[in-house]
């Protein structure tokens, strides 16, 4: 699978853009702030129906404009699929494939998968549990539609229950039969999500460990451990018995929205005791495992987006990654770099077709193709 072309209109700093891509390696070079990462974000938008770096739809609209459009053509299993996303301020986002609009945009997730490696990925390790949940939820949602549906419904009912808790606090009155309705929904959905997360991490962890050992030459023992209150024997009773705390704090204090994943290295938490080098290796191994498991499930190689990695990875880790590129372990790749000469040097001895796009202030000012 690969992205043949992309068209942008009023997307971030791009007023208008029309590009054809190589099915192998695409290098996007230019000064910082020129729009390199924004182009990767547009590709991510076409795949995942949202941007990769947070922010609502309005933040993806070009300054002083009121709409954007992103259109691309994917080739998957020898068929072309035109994907179009349009958004106008104050209106709902519209997503179409081959001119047919989705009833639910969530149905698009997983059809044209991408994997992004970006400079802020170590935040998944060092910051709060929400980022770790989002990382794994994004992968599982691409593989299991029922999981995504359960997660969306759980989040919806959780918001409603939290709203009720605030109302009860304001009125000094508790409708226990009403709250129990939401208890039942959240317990059932939460258990389904928990079971899938546990099943997934059991499958994902060995693939991750293999990549980490390859990157570090077997120097440390690593482990991924899924933590959830719903893994406990009396999870349903504990959820209901937490109501006094929920009322006092005006939010639901137990549930799968509190889950976390422990990233361990030699039996120690990586975020507390790991070096920067270990954290970088861990993140790359997580992303490569992400790539592999998507490929294993879909029988397609996801598009690989590498944002500014030459500046963030040392020579050793970069060499390991480029060896995989040279061995054609990946499919289509997009790489951004602020130093064109470095990109040329890195790929000089790698026998792959590549196309180099030079970007300046939201415009492509040069395209160079090397067919090798």
Automatic annotation (TrEMBL):
Compartments in which it is found: Cytoplasm
Transmembrane spans: none
GO cellular component: a single term: cytoplasm
Superkingdom of the source species: Bacteria
Signal peptide boundaries: none
InterPro entries hit by this protein: DNA-binding_RecF (IPR001238), DNA-binding_RecF_CS (IPR018078), P-loop_NTPase (IPR027417), RecF/RecN/SMC_N (IPR003395), RecF_2 (IPR042174)
GO molecular function, one term: single-stranded DNA binding
Amino acids binding ATP: 30-37
Residues in RecF/RecN/SMC N-terminal domain copies: 2-350
Pfam family, any one: SMC_N
Gene Ontology annotations of biological process type: DNA replication; DNA synthesis involved in DNA repair; double-strand break repair; SOS response
Protein keywords: ATP-binding, Cytoplasm, DNA damage, DNA repair, DNA replication, DNA-binding, Nucleotide-binding, SOS response
NCBIfam families: recf (TIGR00611)
HAMAP family: RecF (MF_00365)
Family assignment from sequence similarity: Belongs to the RecF family.
Main function: The RecF protein is involved in DNA metabolism; it is required for DNA replication and normal SOS inducibility. RecF binds preferentially to single-stranded, linear DNA. It also seems to bind ATP.
Protein's UniProt name: DNA replication and repair protein RecF
Organism, as annotated: Microscilla marina ATCC 23134
High-level lineage: Bacteria, Pseudomonadati, Bacteroidota, Cytophagia, Cytophagales
């Amino acid at each position: 699978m690969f992205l043949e072309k992309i068209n942008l209109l009023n997307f971030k700093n791009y007023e208008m853009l029309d590009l054809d891509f190589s099915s192998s390696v695409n290098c996007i070079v230019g000064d910082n702030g020129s729009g390199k990462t924004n182009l990767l974000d547009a590709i991510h938008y076409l795949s995942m129906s949202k941007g990769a770096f947070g922010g609502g739809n309005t933040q993806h609209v070009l300054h002083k404009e009121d709409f954007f459009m992103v259109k691309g053509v994917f080739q998957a299993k020898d068929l072309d699929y035109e994907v179009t996303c349009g958004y106008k301020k104050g209106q709902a986002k519209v997503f179409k494939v081959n001119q047919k609009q989705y009833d639910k945009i969530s149905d698009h997730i997983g059809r044209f998968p991408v994997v992004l490696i970006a400079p802020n990925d170590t935040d998944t390790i060092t910051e709060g549990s929400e980022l770790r949940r989002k990382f794994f939820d994004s992968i599982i949602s691409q593989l299991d539609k029922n999981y995504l549906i359960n997660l969306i419904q759980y989040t919806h009912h959780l918001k409603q229950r939290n709203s009720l808790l605030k109302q009860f606090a304001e009125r000094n009155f508790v409708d226990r039969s009403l709250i129990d309705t939401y208890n039942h929904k959240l317990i059932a959905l939460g258990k389904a999500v928990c079971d899938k997360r546990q099943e997934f991490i059991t499958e994902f962890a060995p693939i991750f460990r293999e990549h980490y050992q390859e990157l570090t030459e077997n120097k440390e023992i690593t482990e991924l451990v899924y933590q959830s209150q719903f893994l406990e024997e009396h999870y349903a009773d504990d959820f209901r018995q937490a109501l006094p705390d929920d009322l006092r704090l005006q939010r639901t204090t137990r549930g799968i929205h509190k889950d976390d994943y422990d990233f361990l290295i030699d039996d120690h938490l990586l975020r507390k005791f790991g070096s920067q080098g270990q954290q970088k290796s861990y993140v790359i191994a997580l992303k490569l495992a992400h790539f592999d498991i998507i490929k294993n499930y879909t029988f397609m190689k996801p598009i690989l987006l590498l944002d500014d990695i030459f500046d963030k990875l040392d020579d050793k880790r970069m060499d390991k990654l480029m060896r995989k590129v040279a061995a054609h372990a990946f499919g289509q790749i997009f790489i951004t770099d602020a130093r064109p000469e470095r990109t040329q040097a890195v790929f000089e001895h790698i026998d792959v077709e590549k196309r180099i796009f030079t970007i300046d202030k939201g415009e492509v000012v040069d395209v160079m193709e090397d067919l090798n």
